[in-house]
Structure formats: structure tokens, C-alpha cells
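Notes to self after the Tuesday call (sharing in case useful).
The group wants a holo model before anyone commits to mutagenesis around the pocket. I volunteered. Ligand is glutathione. Logging inputs and output together so the record is complete.
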Amino acid sequence: MLRVHFAPNSRAGRIIWLLEELELPYEVNRLAFHPKDLKSDEHRARHPLGRVPVLDDGDVRIYESGAIVEYILERHGGGRLKPSVQSAEYPEYLQWFHYCEGMVMPPVNTIIVQTILLAPERRDETALGQAQRLLTKSLAPVDEALVGRECLIGDFSAADVMLGHACFMSNRLGCVPDDLVNLRAYVSRIANRPGFQTAIQMQ
Ligand SMILES: N[C@@H](CCC(=O)N[C@@H](CS)C(=O)NCC(=O)O)C(=O)O
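Result:
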């Protein structure tokens, strides 16, 4: 049985969402998004930095949300939610899949640190402003890619699970400008998917 080490309001939601979309059975180890759980010896034995998500599959243990998504698709997905390697969509699928952790999440991380995690006296307005501008710039190409499309590469895919989740998080931080109309509509569409709702409501 697949077992997801999960904390609410985190990238672990991507894994729950993917498993729901694939209709695969899974178990959840619910952790608090708090050092008492994430930095415990027990959880550090799963992830050296004490982070989520982590997936167990029998004897396999793996972390990094993108790696976990690829692992599930390849070992358990039966060819679903991913274009074939020879298809015209495959390069764009890869691009958006990796754009998530590569371009969008770094400024999202900084914004969360500078607005939520750091004590007010340690916050840095310059770092926050830079991250907000970088995030807005990084989201503009995603908005363009969505012109006339329901999903990033046309059909719903794991690229939507990765980058769609990052766009949802960006929107929740108030960082999707009103003029990115395609992206705003996309965020509403994915937020309405039952699998996404299961993931986002999980505590
Ligand atoms: N690149 C990693 C990032 C993992 C990560 O930073 N997870 C966050 C939650 S979204 C976390 O566990 N934070 C807890 C902490 O930093 O203490 C991935 O995609 O899995």
C-alpha cells in the first residue's frame, strides 16, 4: 500500500491529489506542519531535512514531490496523466512539470518565509518585494500558455498537479495579478476538481 507522509497546506497535497486522480488506494500519515512533528527524529529518519512529502511503497522510500509524482506515474499510473515520450506534447509537459519547483516555488518559499514563518522583526521588505516581483514574472508565461486551453498541455496531466498546485498556492498568497485572467480561471478550474478538494481539505 502506498503511504504518504503528509502535512496540511504543503506540497504533500500534490501527492494526495495525484493519487485521487489516479483512483489508487493509499494511506496517509498525518503530521502537523510544525517542528514537533516535522523535525522529530522519527520524521528526520524519513527525510533528512524534516520535510514533506515523503512516500513509502513497500521497501521503497522517496522524497521530493516531483520525483514522487514521476515514481507513482511510472510504477502505478499505467500510462495515465502523462503524454507518451514520442508525442508532440511531451517536451511541453516536461517543461511545465519542472517549471513548478524550478521557477515558481522559489519565490513562493521566500514569500512564505517573509510573511508567515519569520517573526515580524526579522522580516525583510526588500527580499519580500523581490520575490513578489519574480513570482509575478514567472507566472506570466503560464498565463500565456493557458490561452484557449483548459489545462497546461491540453488534457489534464501531472504537469497540472505540479504547476497547478503551485499556481493555487501563489493565488492564495495574493500573488496572481488580476490581469492574468487565463491563470486565474485555471486556478478556479483546478480548485473545483474533486481530487484537488480532497487534497486541499485534508488536515
Ligand atoms: N522540493 C521539495 C520541497 C519540500 C518542502 O520544502 N516541503 C515543505 C512543505 S511544502 C516542508 O516540509 N517544510 C517544512 C520545513 O521547512 O520545516 C519538494 O518538492 O518536495
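Two things stood out.
DSSP finds nine helices and four strands in the chain.
The chain has two domains: 2-81, 90-193.
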